[in-house]
Amino acid sequence: MSRAAEKSVRSVRRMSAFIFVYTIALILVCFAAAMFAVATYTVSRRRACLPQVAFFGTYIVELCSIFFSEWLAQNLSYSSEAYYQISDPVVRIATGAVILHSLWVMLLDVLDVDDRRMRLAPTVAFLCASTFVVVALPTGAVRQWAFYTLRQAYIAFGLIFSLVKYLTSTDDAYRRRLARHTHWYALLWVLLALIVAEDVLVILVVPEPTEAGAATLRYLSERNFAENLMMLVVAYHSIRGSLETLALRFREPPVAAAEGDLARHVADALPAYASAKGLSRREQEVLALVVEGLDNRSIAKRLVLSEGTIKTHVHNIMKKTGTASRDELKQDFWSS
Question: What's the rounded Cα separation, in Å, for the pair 311 and 322?
């Protein structure tokens, strides 16, 4: 065997080892995030945890599918036509739809949108567009790029939809709550741009490798490292939220909340805020109703207490939180 051939073999082996370790690490992160989401749902019964389980569980399936395709490719001779093939298109479309739909449902939960048609429409459009690309376009770089870019189009739609909801809302509490996620929103746009740029570079710009280099580069056309980074960001956010919820629920069971989107979001944020400010259980109950917009008389009626007792609790809450008015207290609650 010539030196060039030996060098090529070593390069392939190093790439194979890196891809193996890298894939296993991603699978473990997804598994951990899914298990934390299951645990959080068990103790809190928050429906928002279920799409997280579906998101990370399906991402594991997709990673395994890609890795299996790569393993099979090692035992096949190089084919120029096969380089831009979409491996297992039915599986790719199905897993992509579940992953994106789960992400979309999580986003709608944050936005308080409970419309069945809105939940299904983007996913149906994604399924139809992906099927069209696979069936109608000829095998090649453009087809492969279009197929994977549909994912980014779906995510971009979700981000634009979120911005429109924020800008068109006249509910001050709603806008303040959404404003807490500004840095995550900006980060997702940056990651989305990186994903598109990587696909353009790897699929459309970098020339098709020769037979000698194909074994090393075959991994790149169906992988996107920036997309994996986005998944890790979602996993970090999910695991951190799960850990905070589990820790707070362990120290103190949740206060029962009234029905409605606002009450649900107040109940989600209340344990962390109360823990940071040192509020008692009764003060938490009063604070939740204050943030929901109830006056002292209504709170007294709801909790079956005297109005004077409620005034005392509100005064103590403001003292502990360092606020001077109800509006300032609400703003401090949502911005913390």
Answer: 16
How far apart are alpha carbons 255 and 267 in whole angstroms? Answer: 7
Q: What is the CATH number of the domain that holds 278?
A: 1.10.10.10
Q: What does the block give as tokens for 159?
A: 């981000």
pLDDT tens, residue by residue, 105-153: 999 988 888 888 999 999 999 999 999 999 999 988 899 999 999 999 9
Provide the domain limits for residue 224: 3-250
Question: What average pLDDT does the chain have?
Answer: 83
Q: Residues 232, 272: one domain?
A: no
177 alpha carbon, distance to own chain's centre: 18
Are residue 236 and residue 265 in the same domain, yes or no?
A: no
Task: Dump pLDDT digits (tens) for 322-331.
Answer: 888 888 888 8
Which of 112, 172, 169 has its CA nearest to residue 328? 172
| Residue 321 and residue 210 share a domain | no
pLDDT in tens, 268-317: 788 888 888 888 888 888 888 888 888 888 888 888 778 888 888 888 88
CB within 8 Å of 43: residues ≥ 6 apart: 245, 246, 249
Identity (one letter) of the amino acid at 177?
R
Asked if residue 299 and residue 239 are part of one domain, the reply reads no
Same domain as 238, residue 207: yes
For 33, what's the count of Cα atoms within 13 Å in the CB-facing half-sphere?
28
